[in-house]
Amino acid sequence: MNIEKSENTLVVVNYCRNCSKNLSPHAVFCNYCGGKIIKNRITVKNLLEDFNDRFLSIDGAFPKTFLALFRKPEDVIGGYINGVRKKYMSAFGYFALSLSIAGIYVFILREYFMDSIFESIAFPEEKNQAQLNFIKKFAASFNEYQALTSILSIPVLALISRIVFWNYKQFNYLEHTVIYLYAFSHINLTFYILAILTIWSPKLYYFFSFLGIIGYIIYLCYVLKRLYRLSFYKLIIKTSLFALVGSIFLIIITIIAVVIMAKMGMFDELIESIKAVNEAKN
């Protein structure tokens, strides 16, 4: 094979740079390790293409996955569990994309709309400033750890689901994790896109925030019904059981979170402000 050099082309060799096996002259991928044969030097374009291939696999797969998760979630989730890997975005790729959109949302909210969103909340009497400061501080802290919260939520939701569906042997715990990687990512992706589009209006923002909570519950029921082919009666039973087990987990997690927040001193400013107001009244 001829060896060429130019500003935009690497040295052309007749072996794979990944596994050192011999290549055919016009190979695009290595027949042994499957590695892509790179002939051009690094540019912004191929860096973005490599990032997309390794982590997101967006291209035409994203709109196809996004729409299918509304229409036939069992085709996307069940297909991935059963070994389908090319038709739709992977579970981790979709989750990574949702975290990326969430990061954009958090940046926009923190940098441009935090004050306008939270100053529209009305509080009675003198306590308003103390309460508002606490809520803004809490929201800022929650947004700062939003990605970590999302990552930790997946195994917890999968565990609750595995407990609720203990009598169904269709999916194991790791497969339940895949279910929530897709479902959690999908509702978050939908909510954050709507939030970014409506964040300029506090009223619309609050409406879609409330809608997001309701939408998550409805969508989760929809996904589980399609995956397990549940009757309406069984869906009600499983949803009620999920709410019960989830409430227990939520209470435990809330207690832990409050203890951590207290240790970090997040309540100190609020407590001192309330004390000062009460002393002024007396």
Automatic annotation (TrEMBL):
Carries keyword Ubl conjugation?
A: no
Listed A to Z, the keywords are: Membrane, Transmembrane, Transmembrane helix
> Per the record's keyword annotation, is Transmembrane helix included, yes or no?
yes
**Chain ranges passing through the membrane:** 91-108, 145-165, 177-199, 205-224, 236-262
Domain of life where this protein originates: Bacteria
* Cross-referenced InterPro entries: DUF3667
Pfam families per record: DUF3667 (PF12412)
Q: Under what name is this protein listed?
A: DUF3667 domain-containing protein
Biological source species = Leeuwenhoekiella marinoflava DSM 3653
